[in-house]
Amino acid sequence: MKGECLCGEVKFSVKGELPNFYQCHCSLCRKTTGSSANAATFVSEECFEWISGQANIRSFQKPTGYRNDFCAACGSSVPNKLRDTELVWIPAGLLDDETGSCVAVHLHVNSSATWELASCSSVRLGEGPDSLKSLHAALQRIS
């Protein structure tokens, strides 16, 4: 399995099968992603290998220990070692699509954003809208 950041500067590979993913809905993960949750998994350090771009990685760490490593060129969150463990945290969105994994656990759902709604009430489009007008029309259908 291979993965890379948005610009392709930071690349890595994972040997073996990936565990299922989790989604964390805490406020820190929401701020890191700009979304409702952070989807990721952990793998053993021995199964993880950098291919390129390590020199492009920057890190931000809060005094609490929360850490986010990211590509200096495109800003994508990238894998990082989990504190003093033998685990590497891997953002799910960086991985090739053929993972065979799925989201198995939702964490910190009590901290979910108030705007996060059940997906059954959402409009789902197979592709992006043709225009802002069509996106606005789709959003109006659920209001």
TrEMBL record:
Pfam families: GFA. This is Aldehyde-activating protein. The keyword Metal-binding applies. The lineage of its organism: Bacteria, Pseudomonadati, Pseudomonadota, Gammaproteobacteria, Oceanospirillales. Residues 1-116 form the CENP-V/GFA domain. InterPro entries: CENP-V/GFA (IPR006913), Mss4-like_sf (IPR011057). SUPFAM superfamilies: Mss4-like. Belongs to the Gfa family. Keywords: Lyase, Metal-binding, Zinc.
